[in-house]
Amino acid sequence: VKRIALLSGGGDCPGLNAVIRTITKTAIQKYGWEVIGYVFGYRGLYNNDYIELTLDKVEDIYKEGGTILYSSNKDNLFDYLVDDGHGGKVKKDVSDVGVANLKKDGVDVLVVLGGDGTLTSARDFSRKGVNVIGVPKTMDNDLASTDVTYGFMSAMSVGTEFIDRLQTTAKSHHRVILCELMGRDAGWITLYAGLAGNAGVCLIPEIPFTVENIAKAVKRRDEAGLPYTVIACAEGAKYADGTKVIGKIVEDSPDPVRLGGIAKQLEADLEKVIPDHEVRSVNPGHIIRGGDINAYDRILSIRYGVAAADLINEGKFGNVVTINHGEMGYTSLEEVIGAAKIGQQKHVDPKGELVMAAKAIGVSF
Ligand code: F6P
């Protein structure tokens, strides 16, 4: 190996920069390889648009959120929008252009930092004979193949701070405040931030809820001398009939999640069943994945990055770096993508220890 290339795809996630920095430093200092980074993910690979990654460029990005390589969550070279020659656009498999560019740029190994969509393309490039290593990215922490992904702890910490701050107004006005948190179809961020921030109710996709149950929980707290409740509500939370908190208000939208939550419908539903409390809803949205990354994710990013470089050195291509039971390891891209299919992501166990612990201290679901 003489030269490696990195790219980041999908939504930005705390820790991406720290991983880019770690791989670059390890590649240059430990192994003597050159490092380049394609910008805007696979689009950069298609357009042959890259920057040289050097020690001075990466030194200070250990705690910066986002990605200095930029990212795109749309561009898939196996199904890429190109001009049709008649003024329109058509989708085409242009992955051969990517493979040719890697050759032209003298890239021996492509390191892909991304979630399930980006890693699916990584698997497909691997099937075409490209030497690929994946480094899993998701602040949702829903990737089945690994215990914890970088970004989760940082986003969860910011979510916790939000809930902490909402306690103040809830308590002062005896209000019920809904705090909506990202996490797609998994409840990890909401459960962790909800527990850490002392939410009275956690609404997570894994445990469908009823407004009547929430009303009961609020009443129980009232009777216990706690006439205020902060509710941590996952963007993927569902009413018992399966309707999503978000879908219910923006169901006409072709892409409800993209509109950002707004638990307004739930706010209105709750006002009906707890007329003696004012109800408010707050949606920090992308704020939880922005800003500096926390100390835990800085260390995790170093571990993921060094393990990725070591895998390259060992020639173990076609794999994703993983962490299981505290040990760094790897799993094949084929297996990771198989397990990332809708419905097979890693979910909160409704009967698991964490939910039981939450219930033991009086948190309602
Ligand atoms: O997967 C990460 C995530 O932040 C989810 O929690 C959220 O549903 C989604 O991305 C938001 O995507 P976008 O930034 O494209 O609106």
From TrEMBL:
Localization in the cell: Cytoplasm
Pathway noted in the entry: Carbohydrate degradation; glycolysis; D-glyceraldehyde 3-phosphate and glycerone phosphate from D-glucose: step 3/4
Annotated residues for binding of substrate: T138, M139, D140, R175, M182, G183, R184, E235, R280, H286, I287, I288, R289
SUPFAM superfamilies xref list: Phosphofructokinase
Cofactors demanded by this protein: Mg(2+)
Main location class: cytoplasm
Residues noted as binding Mg(2+) in the record, renumbered to the chain: D116
Catalytic reaction equation(s): beta-D-fructose 6-phosphate + ATP = beta-D-fructose 1,6-bisphosphate + ADP + H(+)
GO cellular component, one term: 6-phosphofructokinase complex
Stored Gene3D superfamilies: 3.40.50.450, Phosphofructokinase domain
Protein name: ATP-dependent 6-phosphofructokinase
Organism: Sharpea azabuensis
Gene: pfkA
